[in-house]
Amino acid sequence: MIADVYIVVYHYKIPIDKTIDYFKLEKKAIEVYLENGCVNVEIYRDSEDPQKWMEINRFRDKEHYQQVASTFNNDPRISQLFEEFQELLGSTEYEPEKKEYFHMI
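Given the sequence above, the corresponding structure tokens read:
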């Protein structure tokens, strides 16, 4: 049996001196994501460049992602956390990159 999982992957760069603030912020964000229906959130740091990060959000399928995303848009905590995240990026010229994938298992 083949099951699909829908994942949304973000790539971003966090200044080294903001790493602890990023951890605190991400911990809050993951709680809100899971409360709103995200199946799982994984965070990875690049082994060669400690400023580069990858976040993977898992959903049952694309429809589930769209439902959860609409609840994110209506949750004021997400808006606040996103503003704080943008402040962490500061004056860096690195824009977060978002990609969506189907994972076949």
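Residues 37 and 68 are 6 Å apart (CA to CA). Try to locate this feature in the token string yourself.
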